[in-house]
Amino acid sequence: MTKRIDKYTALIIQPHVQVAEDRADIKKNLDRVCNMIDFGVGYYWELPARLVVLPEYFLQGVTTPGKGEHGIDSFMKKAITIDGPEMKALGQKAKEYNLYIAGGGVIEQVPEFPDRWFNTAFIIGPSGDVVLRYHKWHIPASIGLGTSPHDIFDEYKAVFGGDIKDLFPVIDTEIGKLGTMTCHDGCTPEVSRALGYNGAEVICHPVALQEVEGVSQPWDFWTFTRRTRAHDNMCYVLGSNWGTVDYAYYPRAFCPGGSFAIDYTGMMMRHAPYPEEQVIAATIDIESLREHRSRCNHNTWVDLRTEGFRQIYDSPIYPANQFPSGRPPRSLADKMGPVKEVFRDLYGRGQFTPPAGMTVEDMPELHEQRILRAQKLGTLKGN
C-alpha cells in the first residue's frame, strides 16, 4: 500500500547569471541562488517548500558562436566535480530547509573521462547528498560543447550503464518520483518519454533558453513544447531559465526568463514571462496526479501502441561514438562536423526535400560551406 504524499510548494528560481571566467565568478553565482532560495523558503512558509529548481549553467554560464566563444580549454578551467565545494554548499542548503534541490548545466569533469566535460543535471536530497545525476543527452551540436553520453556511447555504457534507467534516471522520494532533463532535451519527445517510462511524476527542467529559440510571444516555442511534454507524460514539468546575464558579448536578456510550472494535464500553473530575476512557486499535488493517471479516458500511456513506430528508431540518425576518448570536441565547428552526414542521410532517404534548384548531394556540402564561411569571418572558432 502506498503512503500518502501531502501537498507541498515547489520553487522555481530565475536568477541573474554571470558567465564565469574563474572560480570567483562561480562563487558569485552560487551565492546569488542560495540567497534566492532563502527568500523563497521564507516567503512561502505556510505550505512548506520541499523542491527547488535552478536553471541550466546557473553556476558557470555558457558561451555561444561569435565573439566570446569559449573552446574546450576555457570550459575545462571552470569545470567542477559533483563532490566539490559547490555541490556541498547546495547540500547544506538542502539540509537546512529539508529540500530537494535540482539544477542543471553544471560543467562537470568526471575522473573516468578527464579530457572532456559533461552537461550535468543533479538532484540533491534533504540529506545534503546528490541523489540523482543525469548527463544531458540531446546537446545541440551548434551550441553545446559538452559531451553527450551518446558521443562516447560504448565507453559511457561500460562506466555508467546503458539501461534506460541508467541513462534517464528517476528517483522515488517522499515527495514523489523525480527526474530531470536539460534544455534541448525538451525540444523533442524522447527524453521526457523515457523519464515517463521510468515513472517520473515531476520533471525538473533546467534551461538556458535564448530568445532566438522562441521564449516570448508570438512564437513561444518554449512553453508550447513543454506543455506538450507534460501532457504526453501526465507529469509536472518545472522549467527554470535565467533572468538576466552579465557577459560582454550578450544582451542582458539573452535568456529572457519565462520560467514556469506546468501541471500533469499540460496546464500552465505559474509563469514569469519577463527577463528579470524572480522566484515563482507552485503547489505540487502528487495524490491528484496519481488519481488522474488512474483514469483510462485520454490516458497518454494506456493508449500507447508502440509496434507501428519501431522503424523510426531502427537505424541511427545522429550516429553514436563521434567523440571517443582522446578525441573530445574542441570547438562548436568541430562538434558540428558529424551533422554533415546526418543531412546526407535525411535527404538521401527522401525524408527531407532539397530547396528548389538543389540536389540531394548539395545538402551536406551546404552545411560545410556555411561553417567554413563563418570561420573565415571569425564568427566560429577554427577546429
From TrEMBL:
**Stretches assigned to the CN hydrolase domain:** 8-286
UniProt keyword list: Hydrolase
Q: Which domain of life is it from?
A: Bacteria
CDD domains in the cross-refs: nitrilase_4
Q: Does the keyword ATP-binding apply?
A: no
Pfam families (alphabetical): CN_hydrolase
GO MF entry, a single one: hydrolase activity, acting on carbon-nitrogen (but not peptide) bonds, in linear amides
Q: Which PANTHER family match?
A: BETA-UREIDOPROPIONASE, NITRILASE C965.09-RELATED
What is this protein's record name?
A: Nitrilase
What's the source species' lineage? Answer: Bacteria, Pseudomonadati, Pseudomonadota, Alphaproteobacteria, Emcibacterales
